[in-house]
Structures are given as C-alpha cells and as structure tokens.
Amino acid sequence: MKTRDKIVLAALELFNEHGERTITTNHIAAHIDISPGNLYYHFRNKQEIVREIFLNYSHELLERFEPVQEQSESLVLLKQYLDSIFTLMWKYRFFYANLPDILQRDSSLHGDYIAVQAKLQANLKNIMRTFLSLGLIDVTEEEIPNFVTSLHLIASSWLAYRSAMNADEKITEQVVHQGMLQMIFIVKPVATTLGKEQLQMLEDGILAKHSD
C-alpha cells in the first residue's frame, strides 16, 4: 500500500476512535511509524487529509445509493440500502458525529459536501420511486421530496444527535443500528402491507443482533 493511502487509513481509524479534533498529524505519523516530514510530503496539513477522506466517502456514498436497475426482489433491495446506510455511518462515524463543526472550519469542503448531497438527494428520490413501483410504499410524487428529506436528515444527523444528548457516549455499532431503526420508524406509516411485513423482518434482524 502506498504511503499516502496508509496516511488516510490511519487518520480515519484514529478520527473514528478518538475524534477528529483531538488527533494531530503527529499522531497520524506515529501510528504508521513514519516521520512528520514524510506525512507533510503527501499532505500539507490535517485538513487536507480530512478532505481526502471526504472524497473517498463521497465516491462510496454515490456508488452505494445509485438506483438499482431491474431489481425485482423488494426485500433484497430494502436490505441493500439499509446495509449501505449502516456501513457508511460506521466506516465514517467521526464525520457523521461532528459534521457541523468539520464543515464550518472548511468552506471548500462545505461546498463539496453540498454538491454531493444534492446528487444523493436525486438518487434517493429515484430509489423511493423504485420502492413505490415495487409496492413497498404508498406516497404521491409530490410527497417524495419531503419524505426523502426526512430520511436523509436522520441518516446524516443521527450520530451528531446522540453525541449532543450524551457527550460521554461512545459510538458503537448498536448506536448506528438504532439510527437505522429510526429510519424504519419513519417509513412504516407510508408502507404498504407488503412493505410493513418486509420492514418488520428487517427490524427484527437488527434487534436480534443486539439481543444478547
């Protein structure tokens, strides 16, 4: 693996474990046993590393939430998108947990974030139309934008909300899964009978993972 990639992976690991604000470039360099000068050869400062992580995140985000063509198995499709939400929230949890602060410190990154989220919103609207065609939800075309906004709001702010409610709470997989359950709760009122049955199966699966 190239040194640049090692730096990015190390930063992501440390940011997730300790929070982005508490980690310096020296911490990152020490974590992969390179000199600070070697790190600065690849990145001028920590903010450039954060931008690189965001670039990786945005590529994965848009790829995972690209509407699937010719997908007839509604349960498979629902599970695929819920799994994608979990994967991204967990993999980039430092970003989700401290989003307003990170964006406020970097206007360029904030602009990139807005552009990526606009593309995501468009993809999510098309995904909801697919769910509608599969008979999973019962909403009008006019209601889809507000419905998508509600789901997007939970996904993007859930970890920040939990951190604000309890500053000492450690972000765990269970906390992320609770965010997924909140999204299911929002979908249930507009779900068809088929949709409710399949949402319940997914909800039971999530709860079973944390029943011990």
Automatic annotation (TrEMBL):
Keywords: DNA-binding. This is TetR family transcriptional regulator. Residues 24-43 bind DNA. The keyword Iron does not apply. One of its GO terms (molecular function) is DNA binding. Gene3D superfamilies: Tetracycline Repressor, domain 2. It comes from the Bacteria. Residues 1-61 form the HTH tetR-type domain. It comes from Vibrio astriarenae. It holds the Pfam family TetR_N. InterPro entries: Homeodomain-like_sf, HTH-type_Tx_Regulator, HTH_TetR, TetR.
